[in-house]
Write a structure and sequence with these properties.
By secondary structure, this protein is α+β, with helices and mostly antiparallel strands. It is built from 4 helices and 7 strands, in the order H-E-E-H-E-E-E-E-H-E-H.
């Protein structure tokens, strides 16, 4: 009887621990009616979009990578954000913001004139930097 009780307790503990694990956060699809959480403009051009999720599960969507950077700074959200994503400029797929290669250029016209676009790979970012006469940056430089 004592062994059965220990076994049951062990199963309950393992189940509780498994349910406490954080789920892997994925980006949320953009809808036509989505508005930027910073500037309140419609998110009309997917290739410039960004988003973050906070520790309470709230998702914030942005029409420009610069809007997400400004939102994070003004709201001191960096410590509360759990997942950040940006759209690959060419592929139009979500990538983790921390993994992206960014190109900043005054020749890139983004929705709110942030002038920053993201890429999955460094070679793609290098091509864009040459094309738009920009500089390559990483997450810490864009989201300081």
């Amino acid at each position: 009887m004592h062994i059965k009780l220990k076994f049951i307790c062990m199963i309950i503990c393992v189940s509780l621990l498994a349910s406490c694990q954080q789920q892997r956060l994925e980006p949320v699809a953009l809808a036509p009616e989505d508005m930027c959480s910073f500037c309140r403009m419609a998110i009309s051009e997917k290739r410039y979009a960004a988003q973050l999720s906070d520790s309470e599960g709230q998702v914030f969507k942005f029409d420009d990578i610069g809007c997400m950077a400004n939102f994070m700074q003004r709201n001191d959200i960096d410590g509360k954000s759990v997942a950040r994503f940006v759209m690959d400029f060419d592929e139009r797929i979500w990538i983790k913001a921390e993994d992206a290669y960014y190109v900043e250029s005054s020749e890139v016209t983004t929705p709110m004139n942030g002038g920053v676009i993201a890429f999955t790979t460094q070679p793609k970012a290098q091509q864009a930097a040459e094309k738009f006469h920009g500089k390559i940056q990483r997450f810490g430089e864009v989201f300081q």
